[in-house]
Every structure is written in C-alpha cells, then in structure tokens.
Amino acid sequence: MSTHKQIDKICCGVMLFTLIVTAVFMNGERLGIMPVMAQTGYASRLFDDSRVQSIDIVMEDWDSFPDTCENEEYSACSVVIDNEAYKNVGIRAKGNTSLSQVKEYGNDRYSFKIEFDCYEKGNSYHGLDKISLNNIIQDNTYMKDYLTYKMMGDFGVAAPLCSYVYITVNGEEWGLYLAVESVEESFLARNYGNGYGNLYKPDSMDMGGGRGNGDKFDREGMEEFFGGARGEDRKDAGELPKKAQKGFDGEIPELPGGVGGFEKSEMPEGGPPQFGGMFKGSSDVLLQYTDDASDSYINIFDNAKTDITDTDKKRLIASLKKLGQGEDIEHVVDVEAVIRYFVVHNFVCNFDSYTGSMVHNYYLYEKDGQLSIIPWDYNLAFGGFEAQSDADGNGGSNANSMVNFPIDSPVSGGSVEERPMLAWIFNNEEYTEMYHRYFQEFLDSHFADGSFSNSYFEEMISSVKEMIAPYVEKDPTKFCSYEEFEKGTDTLKQFCLLRAGSIRGQLAGTIPSTSEGQQQDKTALVDASGISISDMGTMAGRGGFPSHR
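RESULT FIELD:
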C-alpha cells in the first residue's frame, strides 16, 4: 500500500513538473526566456566572421543556369557549406541593375539567393531559412556591406549577420562573396523571438530584392525614362511604372533632361513620383500618411514578408498617421532602435536608400503599432551612389560633399520633412539631442579620439583586409584588380577618418550640420580633396547605370 502511495506521489510530481515546463514554454518570452528557435546555431557557424567560409554549389546543368538568371526563378541544386551537404535547395540570381551589369563585365558572377526550404518544407541550415550571396559588384573595397552591417550590429541595431565565403561551383573556383542573413523568418526569430511582429520591404521601383509580386525590373525602360543610360536629354518621360502611379491622377510633367539634372517638379498632393536628382519613391514608401484606405499603401502591403491581415493593415496605417502628425512618438516608433540605425546609416553616406532619391533598400518592422527600420544593401555606401548632387547642386558625388555631408539634413534628392520616419528626430529638441548624443557615442566607440591610432575601426578594417586579401588576389571572377582593391581599402580608411572628423566638428558646432549652413559657410569644411570616391567603387563604374560623367 505504501508503495502505491509513493508511486502516486511520483506521478503527481511528474505531472506538476510537466505543467510547469509547458507553462514556461508557452510563456517564455513574457518571462524573459528566449524561444529555442531564437537561439539559432547558424550564427556561430556560417556567420563566424573570424575566417572565410567555403560554399560549393553543386548543379549538373550549371552551364545553362546563367542564361536564366535575369528571370530570377529558383532552380534546384545542392550546397556544401564547410563540408556539410544540403541537397535539393533552391538557388536564383538576385539584384536589380547589377543583373544587367554582370553581363557587361563579360562573366556570370551574379549575386544569388539560397533558399533551404524552397522544395522541402522544414529544411534549414542550423535554423537559417535563406541567405543572400552578394557578388560585391561596384565595391572595390569588398567591405562596404560587411563593415556597415558590423557597425550596425555593434551599435545595437537589429542588422543581418554576414561573413565572407569563397564559392566554388562543382568544385571549380568561382570567387569571394559576402554571405548575408536574409531578413525573413529566421532573422525575425533571432532578433525578436518567436512572437515577432510584421515585416515589410517597401518598394515602388520594382527593382529586385523587395520588388512586389516578383515583378521583373525593366532596366531598359528605366534607362529610357531617365533619358538613356548615359543621361541623354529627354523631355518625353514616357509612362511611369504602374506602382509609381499609385495616387497620381495628373499628367506626368515635362522633365528637364539629364540624369541627376532633374529639378523638383510640382506634383499633386499625395502623388507618389517626385523628381530631384533621380526618380523618387511613392508616398507610401516614404512612409507618409495619405488616408485610411489600405489601397493607398500598396507598395508596403504588397511587399509584406510576413502574413498580414486587414487588422494589421489598419494598425500600420494608424501608426503612420501618428508618425506624420508627430503624435505619440514613443508608442509608434522604437525611438532608440531607429536613432541608432540612422546614426550609422548617416555616417556611411548611403543614398541608395530611404534617405536617397530612389527611396528603397530598407525593411520596416512593426509590432503592436511600434515601428522600426532594418538596414539592407550597402554596397553603394560611402558615397558610391553617384546619382545625387553635392552642396552646390552639381551632379554626381565628390569626396568633399560626402565627407562633410550634414548630419542634421541627411537626405539626397528631397527633404527631411518628406520622410516622416526621419523627420521626427529633428522636430523635437529632445530627440535631436538624443541623436547627437548617440552619434558622439558611436564616434567615441569606433574612432577613439578621432584618429585611427589604435582605434576599434582601424583594427577591424585592418584585420578584415588581412583575412580576405589572399582570396581577393586569387578571385577568378572579381570586378576589380588586386591593386584597385588595395587602393580602395586605403581610401575607405581615409574616408572614414575624415568623415569622423567632420562629424565631430558638426556636433561641436564648428562645422555646419545642415545643407543650408554648409552652403552659406564652406570655410570650416574638412578638406577631402586628397581622396577619390571612385577608388572605392561607384554605381557608375564599368558598365554602370546610370552614368553621367
């Protein structure tokens, strides 16, 4: 009898323990316990940035695969990552202008996406569902994306993991690429836990990566719209892309010819296309509130990366309305996360982005009505995006304008006021002071006293160069020579030194921190005439688009 009582006690104990474990599992996030999926194994494997990883792509019909790359359709292959084999995964080319540009270089060095669960649901690489393999086009330094993502992550921004990988195809050397964690389910679980919110990649340009509905980028049509690949005069602009027409009921205005020579045109209120240097994104991609109709935000909702409902749409629209009105900012914006993002983003001068004339290449994250922004695509950072004007309105970027680019009016091809996700920082003294304080924190942590001497950044960039240099030298498909790589990395170091010096002056008030201030007084600007932005690689490099030199 006593034995039965003991057994009963043990059974009760087991049942109680089971109930406790179940409760913890179901409410782990509320208790501060990260879900198992969020504790992913891939971060310490493929994204171990202390060494160059290896990826072998195995595909029987590889010779015919490049012919299909511009269609951006998945094909089956196997991949071997550091001697771990993964069969029946999906591979496709990625990019926008770079897809066409690769052909002009005369090789098949495309960027790729690898989707592990493309054909078999549940497949992953140690919890990772998808990766991007960037071909590092337009970047002689091989470091623009890498350094930006690293600085973002180091500074507390939810940024993609990345690492260098040396790719072989069917055992034959292909080249040095950058592996980047795709901003999708695995990324969300790693950064926010299994109870993550909604993710969008706003884009009205139909230009790859975040192109809605998988539409194919029409490079020829875009070049025609802008007056040809070489910026030829064109007043007859033709028809706007369908997505860009959303909310625009008037006639397309006549436009002055020349890429980078457009004057800002008058547009109906709420109309998406505006022109200043180049084509500018729609009002919804600018994150402007227009009305309560979900159809007014098609370039956000059609590019949702998570499943969304009508309730989700209404909640996001309500947040955009408050954001535009400057109301309840603490509840509609993750203040610290967004400011930290813009500190690093504005340091690296990337105008192929939300702060540029094209207005794309960012992710919008929302949970419970609170918004934040996630970085993406920095191969044209550090002034490499040429389709912008300097402080004098001259086309193209130059070292002086980029090094001194004002931190308090950090946009190209428009105004801060047109971008509500940025404008709130400068519409409130408290937030502006917070932004300046975080900028100072960033400089102090990365550049010490403003010099490269024993600074964190100097050590980081030197160690990365030492690690990848042998792979760059032997890279059979690289877009630049090894000598150009060495020149590019040296220029990148000098650029960041000068940029840090200029921003220190802007924070101290000795250098104007706005475009207007710099136009009025150029005497205090940091002299960057000794370096050339093009040495680091630009959009208008060999075969580039657009070119307007």
